[in-house]
Amino acid sequence: MPKLHYRAVFVSDLHLGSNGCRAGELASFLKHIKCDSLYLVGDVIDMWRLRQRWYWPEKHNRVVQRILKMARKGTRVVLVPGNHDEHARPYAGLSFGGVDIKLETLHTTADGRRMLITHGDQFDLVVKHARLLSIIGSWAYDNLVRINHYYNLGRRAIGMPYWSLSQAVKDKVKSACSYVARFEEALLDEAARGGYDGVICGHIHKAQILRADDERPVDYYNCGDWIESCTALVEHDDGTIRLVDGAALVEQLKEQRRSLRAATRKTRSPQDNASPHSAPAAEAAD
Ligand SMILES: [Mn+2]
Predict the structure, then answer these.
(1) Which of 41, 77, 207, 239 could form a disulfide with 110 if both were Cys (CB 3.0 to 4.6 A apart)?
(2) What global pTM score does this model have?
(3) What is the whole-number distance in angstroms between the Cα of residue 127 and the centre of ligand 1?
(4) Phi and psi at residue 224, in whole multiples of 5°?
(5) Residue 231: partners with Cβ closer than 8 Å, 6 or more residues away
(6) From ligand 1's centre to the CA of 29, what distance in Å?
(7) Domains parsed from the chain with CATH numbers
(8) pLDDT of 110-137, one tens digit each?
(9) How far apart are CA 42 and CA 187, in angstroms?
């Protein structure tokens, strides 16, 4: 099976060990690609979650095995820990199973751009100064809908009107927008200060490419996440970095293979035309 080749692939916020992780899609994506360098840009294994409750299904293993296999077959694999896998930070400078651990690192693109690779949580003041608040925050996010249900049952019981979750979320989104903007700004400043041409990060689960312009000193790339968006940044041989929807890409490749197989069957069909079952069987394949 031919694989898509990239010069470099960047993924972040996989959150393996949490039930939100789209590990099946991720394992498929990694199976369909080949790259010279693979950067894991933080929050790869969600130790915060695993310490609360052990959750490690087989498909999460498949992702880890796939990454180690890529390392064995010659891909340079670099892990830049994030806040959810901060336990790996003391091991920076070491290498495990072919995976190099670095607090942050430099990647030079084929067109000569010097990119700072960092998870980005050190620029998130909420995470830095109130870690507890941030843990409560992610717990609340997961349970918000459930809480809202019981909250409103209680309100109804005492005759109070329904409290709208969607309105609260809309209000939250407004502040979230400025939060995202401030995060991007902090990373752009840091990269510019360090003399880099751009930054590649994760952390805020918002895939984004913002090229340098009159107002923006350097390029900003955010890998997104593998909980909702299933995105990856891929660098082509000419140095262009694109954002890909990993899950959609895998579907597309499978579809291509299916139609290729169907076409092969069709060219063979004149000989085994005799069988009345051959045509519907081809339709139903896969
Ligand atoms: Mn993070």
Answers:
(1) 239
(2) 0.78
(3) 9
(4) 90, -135
(5) 11, 207, 223, 224, 225, 243, 244, 245, 246
(6) 21
(7) 4-121+197-252 (3.60.21.10)
(8) 999 999 999 999 887 654 454 555 566 6
(9) 15
